Amino acid sequence: MLKFLSKLFSRRTSSRRPDAAVDFQTLAEGNNDVIFRCGKDGIVNYVSPSIRLFGWVPEEVLGQGPAMFILPEDLPAVLAVLEKHKAGVESTRISFRLRRKDGTPVWLEASARTVADAVCGSGDVVVVLRDVEERKQLEERLCRLAMTDGLTGLANRRAFDEALESEWLRVRRTKGRLSLLLIDLDHFKGFNDHYGHQVGDDCLRAVASAIQEALQRPADLAARYGGEEIAVILPNTDLAGAVAVAVSVRSAVEALCIPHVVTGAGAEKVTISVGVATALSAVGASIQMPAGLLRAADTALYKAKNNGRNRVETALVLSGDISTSSSEASTG
């Protein structure tokens, strides 16, 4: 379609045949896709009536540049494509978000082709725009599913690993700090054995929801780390801040009051143990790789288990050294 339109326009501009102009306009105006023609500066000199699908009328678009109807975040990529056409590239394809007249965005796929112009030499660019909003929404849903744990709705292990690596690179770059919580449900095997795995799944979902709700910042990431273990990444958080979050999370889970008569500790409700690790940068310090932070959090979690469960323990990672200390225990 795009190649055919380009040939029609090329015939029109080279021969100035009236029937060629009619052919181009008739085909463009009978197409469900939106057809643009613009100079290599991006100024629109033709747009098909189907632009009305997005609330605009052709007269509002003619003579305008891409900044009028393309989202600012996507504009640089579109301008870069125009530069390619200026440099002699014949055809390009790009996806971007167009702004409807009511301000709402819609994903479009643009196929663009430079057409020969024997009269002026420079040539215009013919662009066919196709609505791909549903496809983009499907891609985003699939992406979320690929990074989401199906049982708890938290991020999955893949998402956790990628986020931890990204945050670690930021720490290395900014010489900042990063904290990690490792959370484990106390006596959960006994819970599953006593109540059954379906109730166990319900319990995991409830605990995951309570942990997620206890997190205050959008940047904090809770993920199902494996089995009944949940990990929480806390960017830009020192040890004291991480302990405060851990205490809040532990209290939120205990407040659910999920019955658990086989805890072996007389608590008779579901509780969690939390290991907290914080990586601190220092001038000249060699910060461990993310695996070191995970080992530190696991060390703290193991200590919480050994010290009676339903408590928070900490570990500090600095210059490759790990030290552990007790931070908080249940008061109930």
TrEMBL record:
This is diguanylate cyclase. It comes from Neorhizobium lilium. GO terms for cellular component: plasma membrane. It holds the Pfam family PAS_3. SUPFAM superfamilies: Nucleotide cyclase, PYP-like sensor domain (PAS domain). Residues 176-317 form the GGDEF domain. InterPro entries: Diguanylate_Cyclase, GGDEF_dom, Nucleotide_cyclase, PAS, PAS-assoc_C, PAS-like_dom_sf, PAS_fold_3, Rev_trsase/Diguanyl_cyclase. Its EC number is 2.7.7.65. Coiled coil: none annotated. Residues 52-84 form the PAS domain. GO terms for biological process: cell adhesion involved in single-species biofilm formation; negative regulation of bacterial-type flagellum-dependent cell motility. It is an enzyme of class 2 (transferase). It catalyses: 2 GTP = 3',3'-c-di-GMP + 2 diphosphate. One of its GO terms (molecular function) is diguanylate cyclase activity. Residues 92-144 form the PAC domain.
